[in-house]
Write a structure and sequence with these properties.
3 helices; 4% strand; 76% helix; 102 residues
C-alpha cells in the first residue's frame, strides 16, 4: 500500500515539475512577444518596463539576431519557434518519464 502511495506521489511530482517548466517557457514566449511589440511604440525600449523586459529577453534573442531582411529582424520569430520546439520536447520527455514510472 505504501509503494502505491509513494509512486503516485512521485508521478504527481514529475507532472508538477513539467507543468511548471512548460508554464515558464510559455511565459518567456509571452515576454518575447511583448518585447517585439515594444518596437512599435516610440521610446518603448527606453521605458522602465521596456528595459526590464530587455534585460530578460535580449540575452536569448542575441542568438537569433543574425536573421534579418533589411531593417526587419526575424530573431523573435525564430526564438519563439525554438521555444515551441522546446515545449514539445518537454512534453515528450514528461510522457517518457511517466511511462517509465508505470
Amino acid at each position: 500500500m505504501i509503494t502505491t502511495a509513494v509512486s503516485l506521489a512521485v508521478i504527481n511530482l514529475v507532472a508538477f515539475i513539467f507543468k511548471i517548466l512548460n508554464w515558464l517557457v510559455g511565459a518567456y514566449v509571452l515576454l518575447i512577444v511583448i518585447y517585439a511589440l515594444l518596437s512599435w511604440l516610440p521610446g518603448g525600449y527606453q521605458s522602465r518596463f521596456g528595459q526590464l523586459i530587455g534585460r530578460l529577453v535580449e540575452p536569448f534573442l542575441s542568438y537569433f539576431n543574425f536573421i534579418a531582411v533589411g531593417p526587419l529582424g526575424f530573431g523573435p520569430v525564430v526564438a519563439i519557434i525554438v521555444l515551441t520546439v522546446v515545449q514539445y520536447g518537454l512534453q515528450a520527455l514528461e510522457e517518457f518519464i511517466l511511462r517509465l514510472l508505470f
